[in-house]
């Protein structure tokens, strides 16, 4: 840090911090959240296709 531990930006978010660790963890967290959102959306789509296939091909009537 350049001036006694305080960041040099008016916006205090972690992506524009002077600290390398803060920037690294911010990028990691954004990547993690984006990945989770994508996987949840794909999971929902695949589950919908599986339910449609089960009803179309009669797998739901086996019980």
Main features:
0% strand, 59% helix, 63 residues, mainly alpha, 1 helix, rod-shaped
How would you describe this protein?
The protein is an all-alpha fold. It has one domain (about 15-60). It is built from one helix and no strands. The mean pLDDT is about 85.
Q: What is the makeup of the main sheet?
A: none
Question: What's the total helix number?
Answer: 1
Strand content: under 5%
- Helix fraction by DSSP (H/I, runs of at least 4): 55-70%
Please state the average pLDDT score: 85
Number of strands: 0
**What oligomeric state do these chains adopt?**
single chain
The number of domains is 1
Which spans of ≥5 residues are poorly predicted at pLDDT below 50? none
- The CA-CA distance between the termini, in Å, is 66 Å
Structural class of the helix and strand makeup? mainly alpha
Form type? rod-shaped
Helices and strands, in order, run as: H
Radius of gyration: 23 Å
Task: Spell out the blueprint of helices and strands.
Layout: H1 20-56
Structure described in brief:
With 63 residues, the protein is mainly α.
